[in-house]
Amino acid sequence: MASVFLYHVVGDLTVGKPEMVEFYETETVESAIRAIGESTECGIPVWRKRSTPNLPGFVENSEMRQQRFVGILNSLDIVAFLAKSECLQEDKAMKIPVSEVVSPDNTLLKQVDPGTRLIDALEMMKQGVRRLLVPRSVVWRGMSKRFSILYNGKWLKNSENSSSSSGLAADSTNRPTTSMTSSRDKFCCLSREDVIRFLIGVLGALAPLPLTSISTLGIINQNYNFIEASLPAIEATRRPPCDPSAIAVLEQTENEQQFKIIGEISASKLWKCDYLAAAWALANLYAGQFVMGVEDNMSSRSFSDFLQTSFPGGEQNGTTKAKKFSSRSIGFNPTSPTRLSIGRSMYRGRSAPLTCKTSSSLAAVMAQMLSHRATHVWVTEADSDDVLVGVVGYGEILTAVTKQPSAFVPSNRSYEGFGNENQS
C-alpha cells in the first residue's frame, strides 16, 4: 500500500472546495435538474429540513445530521421518473417534489473529521459511501505528516513543539482527530471524483500501479446491467440499482456468440441533457434507437398536451406542432443513424460509450474518466473495439490503488460471459 494514503488526511482534499448548500427533499424536480448540472458524479445529496428550530446555542451533532440525509439523486433517476406514463400525461411533472423521486439510502454519505486518514476514507468509499461530509468551521490539529500542513488556505503549525501535542500527532495517524464545531456548521462535500483527481496528482507515489493493465489488476467488473438494443428503452429503468448508475445497450455480433456495446443509458450521458426530451424518448423508443438518437418524426402515444406546454416550438400560430425527437435534444450527436443494424462507425460521437481495452493501464482509465467527467469506462476485448467484457468505475479504481501487489491476478485472465447473468 502506498505511503501517501497514510501521510495524507481528508482535510488535504478539501482545500478550495466550496461550502455545501443543502438541497432539500421539498424542492422541485425542476430545481433538482439545475442543481445536478452543477454537481459532481451527476448527482446531488438530498436532505430533510431540520425538525428543530435554530435555537441560540443549538448544535446539530453528526448523528442528527446523518438521519436528515435522504439519499443521492442523479440524472437517470429523474429521466426515469419523468418517463412514467403518469408523468408523461401530467404537465406539472417538473413541479413534483424530489421526495417522490429520490431512492432513500442514507448510507451513501458519511460525516468524517478533517483529520481522518485518507486510507480510512478510501475504505469507507470501497464499502459503498459515495460522499464524505467534512466540517469546515472546525479547530483541529495533529496532522499526520509534513504533507498535511495546508487546510482551508492556511498554513498550520506543527504540533511537535510539545510532548503532549506530538503524542496527539502520533495518535492521529491511527484514528481521526477530535474537532470542535461552531454553532453555525459549515461543510464541504467530497465525492469519489475528488479522490480520483487527487490520485492523478500523486501517480508517482503509486508506482508501479498506474502503468499496470486493468486486467492484471483484476478490477474489471463483469457484474453490470445491460439491455439488448431490440428491447424498449424503458426496460433499462427496471434493472436493479447498481454502481455505476449505467446500463449497457448491447447487440449480438454476427456469429451470435458475443455481444457488442453500441451505447449506454446512464447518469453520465444524461447529466446535462434536455430531461423532457430524454424522458419522452425513453418511454417511446427502443434501446438501440435511444442511444443512437434516431432522427425521425415520432408521434406521442399520449404526450401531445405535454409537448405543447413543455417543449419550445410545441405551438405555432395556434396549431400544434409534433415534436421531432433529435439526438441533439438529449445531448447526443450522431451522424445519420436510421436503423438498429447500422454500423457503429456511422454513429460515433457523443452517443458512443466511453470505452477502453483490457490492456489499458490504470492511469489511462483514470485520465479518461476525469477528462470526460464520467463515472465509469466500459471495457472491451484487447483485439476488438466493441465486444464488451465489463466495466471499471470509481469503486474498482479505489480497490486497485489500495490492493497489495500479491493480490494481483495474471494478465492472461480470461473473461467469459457478461453482465448480470449467472455463469454456467
pLDDT < 50 stretches: 139-183, 295-350, 410-418
- Give the C-alpha Rg: 24 Å
Largest sheet: 3 strands, mixed
Share in helix: 10-25%
**Oligomeric composition of the shown chains:** single chain
Provide a short characterization of the protein structure.
This protein is α/β, with parallel strands linked by helices and 424 residues long.
Relevant terms:
424 residues; alpha/beta
Plain-language structure description:
The structure is a single chain. The chain is an alpha/beta fold. 25% of the residues lie in helices and 18% in strands. The protein has 14 helices and 20 strands. The chain has helices at 4-7, 29-37, 62-68, 75-82, 85-88, 118-126, 163-172, 192-200, 214-217, 275-284, 287-292, 304-310, 362-371, 394-401; strands at residues 23-24, 43-47, 69-74, 109-111, 131-135, 138-139, 150-151, 154-155, 180-181, 187-191, 225-228, 246-252, 259-266, 296-297, 315-316, 319-320, 324-325, 355-357, 376-380, 388-393. Mean pLDDT is 76; it is low at 139-183, 295-350 and 410-418.
What's the structural blueprint in terms of helices and strands?
Elements: H1 4-7, E1 23-24, H2 29-37, E2 43-47, H3 62-68, E3 69-74, H4 75-82, H5 85-88, E4 109-111, H6 118-126, E5 131-135, E6 138-139, E7 150-151, E8 154-155, H7 163-172, E9 180-181, E10 187-191, H8 192-200, H9 214-217, E11 225-228, E12 246-252, E13 259-266, H10 275-284, H11 287-292, E14 296-297, H12 304-310, E15 315-316, E16 319-320, E17 324-325, E18 355-357, H13 362-371, E19 376-380, E20 388-393, H14 394-401
Parallel strand pairs: 1-2, 4-5, 11-12, 18-19
Antiparallel strand pairs: 2-3, 5-10, 6-9, 7-8, 12-13, 14-17, 15-16, 19-20
